[in-house]
Amino acid sequence: MDLQFEPERMSTQIVARILVKALMAMPAPDFSLCLFLIPERVQMEEQFKTLIVLSHYLETARFRQFWDEAARSRHLLEVVPGFEQAIQAYAIHVLSLTYRTLPRSILAEAINTEGLSLDKFLEHHVTNSGWVVEKNQGKQLIILPSNEFNNPELKKSASDGVPLEHIARIFPILG
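Below the sequence we write its predicted structure tokens.
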């Protein structure tokens, strides 16, 4: 079915499911790419507005707002199995790019899990992902593995780029 050439044959339920699946593929640009194929008048329907808001919250790492809105929109999201786990994986990805050490409370908010479920989640990641959990002043801190984004010492060296001296020689030519 081609949405551009046969819009009358479009099933909004199927399109909504496709967009939910696209949200699950974050950080890939699937959601935005899918939106380009959907006519603007269809995007103005309530279910699509909600999915667009959810996408915005994910793209801006506003996980608390995302989970609050997702709770109000369960009817849209529950139709696709694995939604919550996919979004949790995306949240972990974002956190690992941003933090080297983070409080348990920030992790809990980002993945929308608390208590024993969070304990099991942490236990799994300590065992399988190289996380470390430390107690500091009565609070739990999660230490994530280093990567080039959360640890400046691992950044790629500037020698991979063009030296400033070479660029400076071009400026007089550009005049």
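The first helix runs from residue 12 to 24.
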